[in-house]
Amino acid sequence: MRNLTLMTLGLLTLAACNTLPDPVAEPVFVDVPPMRTCTPINALTRVTIPAKTETYYAITEIENPPYEPIQNKQTMTRVIEEARTVFVNSEGTEVTDVCDVEINPNGMTSDGSF
């Protein structure tokens, strides 16, 4: 009987040491309006950077004995970097996150400006 009493007291002591978990607070939702992280196109200036080209000469020579050799000299131009259009802000720095822009193949934006 004594063992039963000690065992019961031990179980009650163990049960008394357990704590209940703290109640979880309900999350509070704040309605934040969406923030625009891009720059509107009407605040920017469109700048066209011209293509970079390289001009070189090709000379061919054909032997033509007993006369002088026949020479042909041609000027050739090669495009190294294509022309491109960028948008810059009022400080002159290039802006890549532009809002509301759809550039058509003819170079016009969706609002009809260049």
Total strand segments: 7
Mean pLDDT: 78
Output the number of helix runs: 1
- Note the beta-strand portion: 25-35%
Would you tell me the structural class of the helices and strands? alpha+beta
- Order of strands across the biggest sheet? 2-5-6
- Fraction of helical residues: 10-25%
Report on the biggest sheet.
3 strands, antiparallel
Shape: elongated
Instruction: Report Rg.
Output: 40 Å
Summarize this structure as a short list of keywords or feature phrases.
single chain; elongated; 1 helix; 7 strands; alpha+beta; 34% strand; Lipoprotein; three-stranded antiparallel sheet; 114 residues
Describe the structure.
The chain has 114 residues and is α+β, with helices and mostly antiparallel strands. 14% of the residues lie in helices and 34% in strands. The protein has a 3-stranded antiparallel β-sheet, with no helix packed on it. β3 and β4 form a beta hairpin. The longest helix has 16 residues. The mean pLDDT is 78. This is Lipoprotein.
